[in-house]
Amino acid sequence: MGANLETQPTTTKPAESAAERKAPRSLIDILDFDVTEIDKLVETGVDIANNPGKYATACTGKILATLFYEPSTRTRLSFESAMFELGGNVLGFSQAASSSVSKGESVADTAKTISCYADIIAMRHPLEGAPFVAALNASVPVINAGDGGHNHPTQTLTDLLTIYREKGSFSNLTIGFCGDLKFGRTVHSLINALSRYEGVRMVLISPDELKVPSYVIQDVLEKKGIEYVETASLEEAMPELDILYMTRIQQERFADIDEYLRLKDSYILTPDKLDTAKEDMRILHPLPRVNEISVAVDDDPRACYFEQVLNGKFIRMALIMKLLEESK
User: Fold this and answer.
1) Which residue among 70, 94, 188, 297 is least enclosed by CB atoms within 10 Å?
2) By the 8 A CB rule, do 313 and 81 touch?
3) Cβ of 230: how many Cβ atoms within 10 Å?
């Protein structure tokens, strides 16, 4: 006869309730990591760039889920490439229409479901705060891969690794941000990150309609005593810059197409505009570009936006390893 299952003693530890489980460490905002942690991630990113084979099996048996509710090329493929190069695997979707969100599933339920299939989640969503909601409900780490016009912390880590590899430091630099500073989540995140280093000065270059939001000025720059200048002239700012961070005017963030058309060509970087730039200045861009950087600039030794793309893979490898290690 079969054993009476109701009377058999058990040595299995009761499963923890959802309330008892500790939420895993996630990255939603660049300020979730302190300066020491960011410096360590950058250090690891440099080592990965120099010794990629050393990390080829770091995530063997692990699965990354990429949940991308809005279009992306670099960020999504960078995450996937990073996980593959760590020896792990990837699953996910690249548009909301191909997921159960098209049936009305909430972000919270999606996060709970995907936690059953993957060890870590990277999420991009058009709504600000969506990755935060996912992190509250997931039982695995969640990485914010961009939420609306709010944050894009892994692009910020990419920018930081690029700046460090090009300049050797984050301190005592003059950083020029040019273009869409209102909706540019990459700009907001990088301003937050750089504001924690000594001697950083920021030049904010934009038309009045696309200026940095007042909360960034008040809560970050002024609160921390960061020196900054607002100007509409790229040419006037150029000679003093150590880093020029170009951004595109983002059509998808405009409710009024006429306003977009009026502003889209506000700044176009051409070789002649670099005549007054420092020889060791570096040009960054989170990409994709439309026409804000002429292709004629690509061969200038100061242009490093494609190196920036490669650095994105390295730093995401470092981040995935960090969060998986902390979730053990």
Assistant:
1) 70
2) yes
3) 14
Helix and strand totals (H; E) in the chain: 10, 9
Phi/psi at 178 (5° precision): -130, 130
What's the rounded Cα separation, in Å, for the pair 321 and 240? 38
Looking at residue 262, what is its pLDDT? 59
Residue 57, amino acid: T
Residue 256: the pLDDT is: 59
Measured between alpha carbons, how far is 193 from 170 in angstroms, rounded to an integer? Answer: 10
**183 has pLDDT over 50:** yes
Q: What is the pLDDT of residue 78?
A: 96
Contact 204, 229 (CB under 8 A): yes
Is there a contact between 132 and 28 (Cβ–Cβ < 8 Å)? yes
- CB-CB contact of 297 with 28 (8 Å): no
CB 41, CB 143: distance < 8 Å: no
Strand ranges inside the chain, DSSP E: 63-68, 89-93, 120-125, 142-147, 174-178, 201-205, 227-231, 243-246, 282-284
Taking residues 264-292, report their average pLDDT: 90
Helices (H), 139-255: 153-167, 185-194, 214-216, 234-237
Q: What is the CA radius of gyration of the chain?
A: 22
Among 41, 90, 99, 31, which Cα is nearest to 70's? 99
Q: How many residues does the chain have?
A: 328
Q: Give residue-wise pLDDT tens across range 91-102.
A: 998 765 545 555
CA distances from 23 to 113, 134, 138, 230, 291 (A): 15, 11, 8, 41, 43
- pLDDT higher at 95 or 77: 77
The 10s digit of each residue's pLDDT in 19-47 is 455 679 999 999 999 999 999 999 999 99
DSSP per position, 18-38: TTTSPPPP-BSSGGGS-HHHH
